[in-house]
Write a structure and sequence with these properties.
three-stranded antiparallel β-sheet; globular
Amino acid sequence: MKYIKYIIGICLFLPTSCLNDSFLEEYPKGQQTESTVFTTYDNFKTYAWGLYNVFFGYAYDTGQTDEIFRGDYEADNMIKGLEGNQSQWAYQTAKATDESSNWDYDYIRRVNLMLDNIDGSQMSDVDKEHWRSVGYFFRSYKYFQMLSKFGDIPWVEHVLSDDSPELYAPRDSRDLVAGNILSNLQYAEQNIGNDDGSNTIGVAAVQALMSRFTLFEGTWRKYHGLADADTYLKECVRVSEALIAQYPEVHPKYDELFNSESLAGVTGIILYKAYETGQLMHGLTRMVRTGESYIEATKDAVDSYLCQNGYPITNTASNYAGDHNVYDQFRNRDYRLYLTVCPPYMVKKPNGPSTTDWEYTDDPQDREYIDLMATISGETYHRLPSANFRNYTVQGQPHLKNNNWGQGWNASQMGFWVWKYYNSHTDCSSANGTCTTDAPLFRIGEVMLNYAEAMYELGKFDQTAANKSINKLRARANVTLMNVESIGDDFDPSRDQDVKPVLWEIRRERRVELMGEGFRLDDLRRWKKGEYVNKQPLGVYVTDAASLNVKVTGGPSDNEGYIYFFGEPLGWQEYYYLYPLPLKQLALNKNLEQNPEWTK
C-alpha cells in the first residue's frame, strides 16, 4: 500500500533517470509528438513529476552530503573543518569559473516545454489553469534561485529553437524578472488546484514560496537601495498571514522535523521531500554518524542562542556563567542549541573505544546533559552518549579530532560538533546512501520568521505579531516569550549598532531556528551584512591546548584560549553580494555582461 501511495501521490523521490527530458523520447520515434504526449491531465501530471527534482532535500551522493550546510559554513554559523575549505567569501578565494550549478536554463526549458503545450491540450480550462500554475511555481522557484545569486538574468518565457534570437539576448533587469516571478506566483495562488495527491504543489506550497521570495526580494531592495521594497514586503505579510491562519501551530519536537522517517501529517509541514528504501535514499545521517562529518558550529553561533529566561548571554540579567567551562556555556539555554550542537558530557568506556557499552563517571556534571536530552528528545533521536553508525558510543563531547580517544567519529576540530540531523533509527548501514528520513522543504516555522521580519520592515511588528510568530517558536524551545516593549538599546550590548534592537532579536530568532538549513549566507547578503563573516571562527575554551594538540587564541597564553582551526579571514568584498556569471555562458553569449569586478 505504501508503494502504491508513493506512485500515485507525491513522487518527490522518483529516480533521477525518470525525471528528465527523456520522458518525451521513450515513445516510438515518429509516432509521438509534443501535441500527442501533452494531451490529458494525466500526461501533464506524469511529466510534472520530473520537475520536483528541483528540490535538493538531503543528498544521496557522498560528495554532497554536507551540501545542506553550505550557506552556514560559508557564513558565520559553521565551518567545514578540512584544510582548504575556508569560506570562499571570508578568505577571498571566490572566483568566476566555467561552470555554475546555479545557472540552470535547462530546467527552465523543461518547465517551458510543459507550459507551451497547455493551450493545445484536450484539458478543460480549469485543468489548464491548474497545470499552468504548477509550471509557474516551478519556473518561479528556479528563477528565484538564479535571481538571488546573479541579479539581472535573461527571462525566457518559451522553449527556444537553435535559431531563436533570445539565445543571445542580454540580461533582463532585476525589476522585470522579480516582477514576473511575483505575477506568476500570484496567478498560481489564484488558479492552482489541490487534487494531485498529498504532498504535491498546491495553494499552500505556492504561498510558502511567495513568502520566502518576497521577503528576500523586499529586504534586498531595501538594503541595496532599490525601489519597490514595500511591494514585496506587503505580499510577504499577506501570504504569510494566510499560511499562519492555516498552520497556526508548530510541531512540538524540533528535532523530529529533520529526523523522521515520515513527515506526512506532521504539524506545520507544508511540503517535504520523501525518501523510501529502494526508491530514493540519502547519506546525510550516515555522514553525521561517521568520521566523514566535518561540519561544526562556531562560538559566534553558539553565543547567539538565548538563555532560557529570554535574555542574550551578554545581558547580565541572563545569569550566564560564561564560556570558560563548557558545561556552564550550555547551561539553561534555548533547547534548539542542544538539538543542533551536541552538548557536553563524559562517560567511561571500560571495554575500549569500539564498543556499544558505557558507564557514568563519578562527576555529576558529566551526566547533566545526558539526563537532559532524555527528557527533551525521543529515544532514537538526540540521546547521549552519541554513537556512530555501528552504535559504538562516544566517550564525550567536546570530542576533538586531534585527541579523539581512538574514536574518529562524531568529532570536530574546535569542539562544537553539529548533530542536527543525527538519529539512530534510519538505515546507515552503507556509505552508498541508505537513509530514508524525510527532508522538510517548506515549514511554518520559516513562514513565521518571514512574517515577523516583513512586519518589522513595514513598521507593523508588535506584541500581537510576536505572539503568532516568534513566540510560537520560543515556546517549543523552552525560552521565555518575547516581550517587544522590553527590548531596548541595552538588551544586547553586543548587537550590531546599525540594527535596531527589536530587528536584531527577530534576526537572531531566524538564525537559531534555521541553523544548519543553509539560509544564513543568503540572509547576510540580502541584509547587506556580508562583513559578519569577517570574524575568525572560534570553538571551545581550553586550558591545555598542547596536550589536546590544538591551536588557541584569545587567552592568556598559547596553551589557554579558544580553539581555532582557520586563521584570520581576509574579509568580505563588496562585489561578493552578487555571484559571478559562469565564464562559459559569457563565451557562448557575447551580449551577457559579467557582474561588476568579477574577472571575465
